[in-house]
Amino acid sequence: MDLHRRSMLKRISALAPAALFPTAVPAQRAAPALATRQIPSSGEALPVVGLGSWITFNVGNDRAARDACAEVMRAFFAAGGRMIDSSPMYGSSQPVIGHGLAKLGSAAAPVFSAEKVWVGSGERGPAQIEESRRHWGVPRFDLLQVHNLLGWEEHLPALLAMKAAGRLRYVGITTSEGRRHRDIEAVMHSQPIDFVQLSYNLLDREAEQRLLPLAQERGIAVIVNRPFREGALLRDLQRHPLPAWAAQIGCDGWAQVALKFVVSHPAVACAIPATSSVAHVRQNMGAALGPIPDAALRRRMAEHVQAL
Ligand SMILES: NC(=O)c1ccc[n+]([C@@H]2O[C@H](COP(=O)([O-])OP(=O)(O)OC[C@H]3O[C@@H](n4cnc5c(N)ncnc54)[C@H](OP(=O)(O)O)[C@@H]3O)[C@@H](O)[C@H]2O)c1
Question: Ligand 1 site: residues with CB under 6 angstroms?
């Protein structure tokens, strides 16, 4: 099969409607079947809702606080979650995740580990990655992303070499809050990356213009950060009644509405809301169940929220 045809088929299968509907999960896990999306570069399926860790898991050394985060992780995995995202920038989040993974054990915590390299100098990248890996206690990361493109020219070749050597599964880049979209676009055009992470939510929709269509065209999986604008979006929305159409897509509250909007964009592989609450993580994972809004409802959702 020629390369063009193969990449076309990968893209088509990554976007196939079947990928939007719940798929089977391994028999040993008593979790509900969540909606998944395929990573275009591999075909691997991932649940469309993951877990962030900025601020919420930066709880220091306090044992009770670490155990509380482990309970959030337990509820996340019990609901069928896979991807947890962190960074050396997030204070104690990495060792807190490591504590949770060790406490739960690998059978109860089938994590897809999404980490970042965040240091200006390429020379210091490998040592930072190794320290992060020790904090998590995983044999290797599933995904390493260059955080906010810091030093990307030096880090990307090293990450791609790690991937080629089998010491890493996927390579990506990140940005947030609409920063450096032109640079992100240039890297998406020129580098063989598997993932791009960016901000996208009911109010911050700049990525729809260029980056999300480009990700589809290039077969790059999109991770969405700040789906709740650090919580501010939900605090605003919760002052308003839930619209009638929310029930049509099985949403029990604004958090699920906000997440369903994000993950129903065909380019999006996974949204990674952060939370310190077991009740909230359960609510958030519920957004990966039930009907996914179509294009017409997506427009209605965005118009409704913009008008509030
Ligand atoms: N450049 C980058 O690479 C970059 C930049 C930004 C973010 N990120 C990643 O993306 C993740 C998500 O972004 P974020 O943490 O900035 O913001 P976010 O996920 O949009 O919002 C997190 C906030 O939402 C609240 N929340 C979560 N679920 C809720 C629910 N069901 N109901 C009510 N409130 C809820 C949380 O409070 P509670 O604790 O009370 O639930 C928390 O304060 C980060 O944690 C990080 O992993 C990466």
Answer: 52-54, 56, 85, 147-148, 174-176, 197, 225-231, 234, 255, 272-277, 280, 283-284
